[in-house]
Amino acid sequence: MKILPPDVSKARAAGWLLEHGPKELELLARAVVLHTADRQECAKSLLDVNGRVVAGEAVEENSIGATRKELDRSAAGGHFGNEGWQVKKDGSRIWANVVTMALRDESGKLQGFARVERDFSERHERDEKLRRNLARTRRVPSESTIAGVVSGGLDAIPEANDAFLKLVGYTREDLLGGRLHWPELTPPEYSTLDDLAHEEALRFGACTPYEKEFLREDGTRVPVLVATAVLKLSPFRWITFVQDLRERDQFENIVEEDVEVKQNFDEIVGNSAALKRILRQVEVVAPTDANVLILGETGTGKELVARAIHRLSPRKNLPFISLNCAAIPTGLLESELFGYERGAFTGALAQKIGRFEMAHRGTLFLDEVGDIPLDLQPKLLRALQEKSFERLGGTRTIPIDVRLVAATNRNLSQMMGDKLFRSDLYYRLKVFPITTPALRDHPEDIPILARHFTNKYAAKMDRKIDKIPSETMRALVSWHWPGNVRELENFIERSVILSRGPSLRAPLAEIRAEGTVSASSSTLEQVEREHILRVLRESGGVVTTAATRLGLHRTTLNAIMRKLGISRKDL
Description:
By secondary structure, the chain is of the alpha+beta class. The protein has five domains: about 110 residues, PAS domain (Beta-Lactamase, 2-Layer Sandwich); about 100 residues, Beta-Lactamase; about 160 residues, Rossmann fold (3-Layer(aba) Sandwich); about 80 residues, Orthogonal Bundle (Helicase, Ruva Protein, domain 3), CATH 1.10.8.60; about 45 residues, Arc Repressor Mutant, subunit A (Orthogonal Bundle). Strands 2-1-5-4-3 form a five-stranded antiparallel β-sheet, sandwiched between helices. A five-stranded antiparallel β-sheet has the order 7-6-10-9-8. β4 and β5 form a beta hairpin. The chain is elongated, with a radius of gyration of 37 Å.
């Protein structure tokens, strides 16, 4: 093999590397070509025995980085490889993988060196970013499981310590009986990684640690971090170190799940388990077009949940139309939903577009759907089933593409039993039900909500309130908030109005007075009525459940409710 003349062209230098270089250099040079096709920069250089550049590109003699120590190691071992920062001709730095090969003639005399650099700057940047992110969240395992494996062949595992055997679920008898083989421990999808690691270990003496999975004796998988080193080439002996990653992966999965929930819902405040369960349900159903029925007491944030569903859906850039069915007079609700034609009735002087038509290709939110009159429910059901409707007074069928989200604080199951709500419409709406929890069911969120509303209204009123007294916070947490989050928000707003300094001044006497029933000012009938109302609210308006809690029969409770004038409107 001969050294390339100094006056050779760059094209011939690259060709010479492929034609005359050793097989290892040929593989590296081919890899360089592939990386160049991927638009990653590469540098190819030929050096003489003194380390001077005789042919090449992208590097200069004074910045080649091939120190005498590197050249000596290349001459002694045939090649030397490392990764690190390299300086290009224009002065910029790249993170490069560098391999220096010793070139010898037929007699074995050293003629020079060939050097190949591959730009791994993007990969290095991704690895560093991942390392920094994991460093912030990763917990050091309480007990590191390291297993050393030594083998005299490529596949057989004649020696292993107890930690490794426990990791893969085999016994010492299995090991001594020769029943442990490396390919049988590796799932098929990781065979390529193993081959690359084996090749790297043959070239450099050890491979870069990499993650894979082992197949245990019982068929389950275990995630591990593997590093292999070659101890001897003849006879061939290697050692592999294995670290159990199960504890780390479990911790990271929990952290990622929490972060995901926090990032997706800005308007919904709280960290309780009950609230996170609702948010996970929203994430599941939002990407679909399924109808959603949101159940829960008044003031629990049902409209916020509906908006979150729309915001996470493919329809997020299309209209979100809402209608409170309880706020529209019964005779006008049909025209609000479906619109009307000019002259449809007295006073219809122009055509009106209904909410269904406004929400075409978007989301329609019907709040208080339990208040829709019984005679209007069949038309609503038909519109949902047929995905079309006619305006009031019109004959033309209008096709629609609407995702419906409905909400109510009433017990629709009970209303079906009382013949106040159609069962077919109920099941059409209840494709995916979500029940928002009452504030008393997640009191751990009250301090977070209190601070959130304090900051919100203090900023709106141009005030600076940075402290909520501990006595006030205790009173807020202990109160049962029958109006839920809406009542808490209104109470905090009133408190901000009354505050004149940096500390929140809350009218605690109001909630304390409401929580204390005075015998002198309340009759037995009033006390009984309030108690039944409270149990009914806590039971979600289900009379049977409330009767069980009160120790009464359902018919008895209904009679008492009629006597005390309790109706569903009071709930």
